[in-house]
Amino acid sequence: MKVKLLFVALLLTRVAFSASAPNLPVQRVVFVDQSASPGADDAARWLEAANRKVFEQTRFGDSVIVYAVHDHTGGSAPIFEAAVPLLPLGASMEETLHARKLLRHAREAGPAKLDEALHTPVRSRSTRLLESLRRIPKDPGRVTEVLYLSDMLESTSELDLERTRITGANLMRLAQAAIDRYHLARGQLDGVTVFCVLDSPRVSAAAKVNDHEALDRFWRLIVVSLGGKLVSFESRIQ
Predict the structure, then answer these.
(1) Model confidence, pTM
(2) Which partner from 22, 121, 175, 204 sits 20 to 30 angstroms from 94, CA to CA?
(3) Average pLDDT over residues 9-30
(4) 200: CB partners within 8 A, 6+ apart
């Protein structure tokens, strides 16, 4: 069923879903921008944010998956993927050692793969962020948190936010067209919490067509319309 932004006002005013219960495992999904648009200075800050928000927080029962954002966002293989089993009461020494090994792998190999991706930009002709929304896995056994490391500038022939200014007059139309184009359904992001760590343009850099505030309005409308919750849209993790 297509999402119609006629219902967004209702979605925005409903009570936000409760915070993740501390005893539930977490599925953490990271999307890292490999296009050329983010600055070179963003890599270290993005890696630090991912370490703090994802890898250092990984516990028994959690899973981590890292995808790249470029012109093949919708079909590329994950950069990194790991699932750590829960340790049941009375777990044997063998089960415990195995789980600890997988946890160590997630915490150590994950950052290494992400660092490699951040320093290996892809010469993409487009930046397909919207396609990433369809790649967020459904995991009924885990709470889902999504972290974007990106300037959040969708750049395709259908929607180029590097050139198309978001205004109060066209915001709803642009968001609705994006939802329809990718056949996104109401409820697609039910229970999903989204964090965006943006680029940090240098003071001397030329002003962009859309500042962070304008992009926040666009992506917040998309996420909330699909049932999710956009918690942070800043240059640093909140």
Answers:
(1) 0.89
(2) 22
(3) 62
(4) 39, 41, 42, 45, 235
